[in-house]
Design a protein that fits this description.
heterodimer; A: about 425 residues; mainly alpha; globular; B: about 80 residues; alpha+beta; Translation Initiation Factor IF3; four-stranded mixed sheet; 2 helices; about 25% helix
Chain lengths: ~425, ~80
């Protein structure tokens, strides 16, 4: 949160913008956990609408909320990109995203063009103007860091993902037909998992891992090329689908190898820290890196060799572990910093220290809940009745996060109401 | 002018900011924070700016920034820079 020049505090979004996105993301997570508890293994069956609903609760509800929150917060500080009037911009994104997701889930569950239509409409209204603005401003950055360049490509990929989603929604609601439905669905998944979620996380990692944990920097060639390589390979795979399935798989495989390399380097960086202090966020990162590598390895295996359907399920589940682990790691760094920083900027003498906003022990307990969720889910792949229990662990995990957001904001407001304002030394 | 030194080059974010702000609160017009850090600490500088401190930030070599902050607005901080 340091490097770019020209940042002004009033360009940073108000704290409640970020915290509300995180809270809504957490509540979607609670809902997803409850859904998995209720439907068990059938919520993981790709042929069933319950699975589509669960996947979109996690991607559009949980991940999009957390990742847009992180983008709103980090674009100014990591990329030097300021969005005008971030409060209004965030509101105009957040509520249509939430309403559009709800309608889309109704479409998956009940069918019918009306729900798909409304879902698509709200998602487009919420996301396209904001993403377009982010893309345009990121495109104008003169001197890109690995993070800002990766963010640029990730936002572009999200727009492609959205366009593919609209086409798929149209096919499902009968507005138009497509002989390429399965290919489009594969591309939609590829853009979502690899081009948007995967790329945004690894791009942010380029800067924050070094900064938060005092590690050596990532290799320059990786930070310079990974974002654009993933994006071009995904675009190539979209076109290659029409020509040759082998070529298409080969291009996707290269993307996966790129992400595996990133996971491996991240693990290595954590072992090279100059001050090897360990807190929950370090273990969240390590868990995320290991599960990313395993996910990509299993997916690569499943792509080129005949494997049981459970291998694909395992790859997808491992990818969810990766995304959630890193998001939790970032959450426990971002939220205490925001509360502390905004209060200090306002001059509150009694501003709590960062470890008082969310105590490290609270984060450590969450790590154990998260690891329990992972363990139960992995066991459930072999013994499916355990999926309901995994849903319970997921619900608890996001309930834990939601409570942390509430407590952090409550402490912030309490300090504002009762805290004595500090006057910095008088001007000489 | 007395210098309150803070070598934050091996501290992980956000510890440097916490320590720096604690020192800022104790400064008088005859003292300044002299901080060494790996990145330009934009949030700290903006916090200093909003509270009308006099500050200077300079990258003296790759990956090493020297940051000086004082409430004394008359002093030329470049004279205090040690490079």
């Amino acid at each position: 949160m340091f490097e770019q020049q020209g940042l002004s505090l009033d360009q940073a979004p108000p704290i409640r913008v970020i915290l509300r996105l995180f809270l809504i993301g957490s509540l979607w997570g609670v809902l997803a956990g409850g859904w998995l508890m209720s439907f068990g293994a059938s919520a993981l069956d790709p042929a069933r609408s319950e699975a589509l609903i669960l996947v979109h609760m996690l991607t559009l509800g949980v991940l999009a909320s957390f990742m847009l929150g992180a983008l709103f917060q980090m674009l100014p500080v990591l990329a030097g990109v300021a969005l005008p009037d971030p409060w209004t911009r965030a509101v105009r994104t957040q509520y249509p995203l939430m309403i559009g997701t709800l309608f889309l889930l109704l479409g998956f569950g009940l069918g019918g063009g009306v729900y798909y239509g409304l879902g698509t409409l709200f998602l487009l209204i919420g996301l396209v103007p904001t993403l377009g603005m982010m893309l345009a401003r990121l495109g104008r950055v003169a001197d890109h860091s690995g993070s800002s360049r990766g963010m640029l490509y990730a936002v572009f990929n999200l727009l492609v993902l959205l366009a593919l989603g609209v086409i798929l929604a149209g096919v499902r609601s009968g507005w138009w037909g497509s002989e390429h439905y399965l290919a489009l669905r594969t591309a939609h998944m590829g853009y979502g998992l690899l081009g948007w979620i995967g790329l945004l996380i690894v791009s942010v990692a380029f800067q924050v891992v070094e900064m938060f944990y005092v590690t050596p920097p990532y290799p320059t060639r990786l930070t310079r090329w990974l974002g654009r390589a993933i994006t071009w390979l995904l675009a190539g795979s979209l076109l290659a689908e029409l020509v040759s399935e082998t070529l298409q798989k080969g291009l996707i495989a290269l993307v996966m190898i790129g992400l595996m390399v990133h996971g491996g380097i991240t693990l290595r960086r954590f072992s090279q820290r100059k001050r090897p202090l360990t807190d929950a966020t370090v273990w969240f990162w390590r868990t995320g890196s290991v599960t990313l590598m395993l996910s990509m390895a299993v997916a690569l295996g499943a792509m080129f060799t005949p494997v049981p359907i459970r291998a694909e399920q395992l790859a997808a589940v491992l990818f969810v572990f990766f995304a959630l682990s890193v998001i939790f790691a970032m959450f426990y760094k971002i939220v205490p910093f925001l509360v502390w920083f905004h209060l200090n900027a306002q001059g509150y003498f009694a501003a709590p220290m960062m470890h008082e906003v969310i105590h490290p022990r609270y984060a450590m307990k969450h790590l154990w809940i998260h690891l329990a969720f992972i363990l139960i889910s992995l066991t459930a792949i072999i013994y499916p009745p355990l999926w309901s229990l995994a849903g319970g662990a997921l619900l608890l995990s996001f309930g834990w996060i939601a409570l942390a957001v509430y407590q952090a904001y409550d402490l912030y407001r309490h300090t504002q109401r009762t805290g004595e304002r500090f006057t910095f030394p008088a001007l000489s | 002018m007395t210098h309150r030194h803070l070598d934050a080059r091996h501290l992980s974010h956000p510890e440097p900011l916490e320590r720096a702000v604690a020192i800022l609160r104790e400064l008088d017009s005859e003292s300044c924070l002299y901080m060494m850090i790996r990145k330009n600490p934009i949030p700290l500088l903006k916090l200093a700016e909003e509270n009308r401190f006099n500050y200077l930030s300079r990258e003296v070599r790759v990956g090493e920034w020297h940051v000086l902050i004082t409430p004394n607005t008359r002093v030329d901080l470049t004279e205090h820079l040690r490079v």
